[in-house]
Amino acid sequence: MGISSFLYAQSDSTDVIAHIEIRGARITQPYIILREMSLHVGDTVTDAALEHDKNRIYNLELFNRVELYQTNDTLVVDVVERWYILPSLIFGFQYDDFSKMYYGVGISHQNFRGRNEEIGVSAGFGYDGWLNFNFYAPNFTPNDDIISSLNLAYQKVHNLSSSYGEYENTNYSIHFSLGKRIGLYHRIQATIGYDSWSVDESITGRTLSSSGKDSYPMLALSYRYDTRNSIEYTTEGALVKCSVSKYGLNDKTVNLLRYDYDVRHFWGIRKYSGFGLRSAGSFLGGGLVPPYFHTFFGYNEHIRGHYNLSYEGECLMMLSSELRLPILSPRYFSLPFIQRSEFTQMRYGLYWAFFADAGKIWYRTQRIDRRPLLVGYGGGFHALLPYSMCIRFEIAINEDREVEFYFAWDVPF
To answer: Which CATH number is associated with domain 85-324+355-372?
Structure first.
């Protein structure tokens, strides 16, 4: 059953919407909110529809709090905006290794022109330095659903590959994307770009070119379907992402094709709790593969139970499951002594989480059935914090019955 048909079943009210009033949006343009809603003038309000639209608007990540309610024939959308201009001091340890400290500064506007556009620049130093500029417009003009983005990046990154010793890559890239949102849940997008990777000391294998520098154009096509009730911590709904990317165009050095997919589904058990499954994979084809194109467990992707270990290959597949049960369901606290409304309403929550992960990673020269299956299971606490932050404290056991404790600053899926 489609979401829209579910929303209008078993109407809780005979009242029909004659007006929609938006309150509290001092910066955000009204159409940015209205385009996320399934309820329109002439529709009949239901509790399910109100909850659905409340979640859709909150998922914009522009508001600390969203409330929808009906007053006579008027549907009121009452929001508390976040603070959008975010200067930041950046500090951390790359890959949770205390010997690999990095630091930097940045500034971003999360709601540029009131259109949910993001523009930002950042610079980093220490282990793996960078200079980055990005612009993202999910709704480029008011009367269409055209998506555009631009990213310019320069970075000095140490190789993750265990081969060829430790060395630094210098990477320049420029990527431009143009896409289209279709309805509330579907999006297609095309990306064109140019990348350059070089090393100071040219050693065979570090780059495909004998000069120590690989430069190539890239093209990508992607599709996205998203019905999640909360993108910051999902308990119901689905996400489907898939893409195909071409690196190099009939080039004698870089000539690769990558396929990626990520499918997630959460079944709501009761309000604020749910059980989810995720399947994800990345597959590489074409010519020779330089180390900077390798895939890993232990960096962006993790098999819990092997969280602090790294595994390398050219292709990977993984399956995850997770049960999320609220200890403190998402709620708000107020800071009345602060005059700015952006800081008066803050959302937080606390969850039990129980999980199981499994995955394989391999090179194309290897048979997948002969590669070890990495397995882990366990549980922990997930703390939901204001401004879409999450901290996890977890314990996991792997297939060799080894136990590990760790914390992370993200949501697993």
So the answer is: 2.40.160.50
Q: Which two tokens stand for residue 114?
A: 């009131």
Domain ranges for the chain: 3-81, 85-324+355-372
**Rounded CA separation 15/44 (Å):** 6
First to last CA, the chain: 24
- pTM, two decimals, is 0.87
**Correct CATH for 3-81 of 3.40.630.30, 3.40.1280.10, 3.10.20.310, 3.10.450.50:** 3.10.20.310
Q: What is the DSSP letter of 13?
A: -
Contacts for 242 with CB less than 8 Å, ≥ 6 apart: 222, 223, 259, 260, 261, 262
Band the pLDDT of 7: cuts 50, 70, 90. Answer: very low
HSE (side-chain half, CA atoms, 13 Å) at 308: 13
- Residue 9: is its pLDDT beyond 70? no
Give the Cα separation of 294 and 281 in Å (integer): 13
Q: Residue type for 291, please?
A: P
- Give me Rg for the CA atoms of the chain: 23
Q: Is the pLDDT of residue 192 over 80?
A: yes
**According to the model, what pLDDT value does residue 144 have?**
79
